[in-house]
């Protein structure tokens, strides 16, 4: 399959891999095997806005998966992906970085990208890895749903109302993900 083509899953199938599965079964395969499973297409990130990924990336529900080159320009015609400073380790396999799509001069949107990288320490000493292993990242893009219009959502604690941005919700959900990961390991 060439780049810029999508894979359509048959009716009844849902692509829902864990972080570990994305790194181990897809990103490692792309980096180390000459003929890797190519269910996830390659896209040039700078040529697509996040809402244009339907039909171009592997889509499952509201999540879109694709490979792109590590150092590729993260800017498109009308926006750019900005790292939010959160990096989450995926066991010893790799890391996951979070990015948010911004329009124009920095208007934050509700589009989030999780960018998966192979851990440098894991690649050392492996015979099938060469310098090209680090050129690929696997991306999962989705639109964060809001209960109100705009980039923030309000919660109320009794009489004390506080406003929490959707970005803060992402940070808080990381703690929830860690709790879930630990309970599934036991």
Total domains: 2
Radius of gyration: 18 Å
Looking at the overall shape, the CATH architecture of the largest domain is Beta Complex
Low-confidence stretches: 148-163, 179-186
CATH topology heading of the largest domain: Metal Binding Protein, Guanine Nucleotide Exchange Factor, Chain A
Gross morphology is globular
* Total strand segments: 8
Strand order of the largest sheet: 1-2-6-5-4-3
Give the termini separation: 39 Å
Largest sheet, in brief, is: 6 strands, antiparallel
GO biological process, one term: regulation of DNA-templated transcription
Organism: Pisum sativum (Garden pea)
GO molecular function, one term: DNA binding
Protein name: NAC domain-containing protein
Defining traits:
single chain, 186 residues, alpha+beta, Metal Binding Protein, Guanine Nucleotide Exchange Factor, Chain A, 6-stranded antiparallel sheet, two-stranded antiparallel ribbon, 3 helices, globular
Indicate the topology.
Blueprint: H1 19-32, E1 58-60, E2 63-69, E3 79-90, E4 94-103, E5 107-118, H2 120-123, E6 136-143, E7 152-157, E8 160-165, H3 166-185
Antiparallel strand pairs: 1-2, 2-6, 3-4, 4-5, 5-6, 7-8
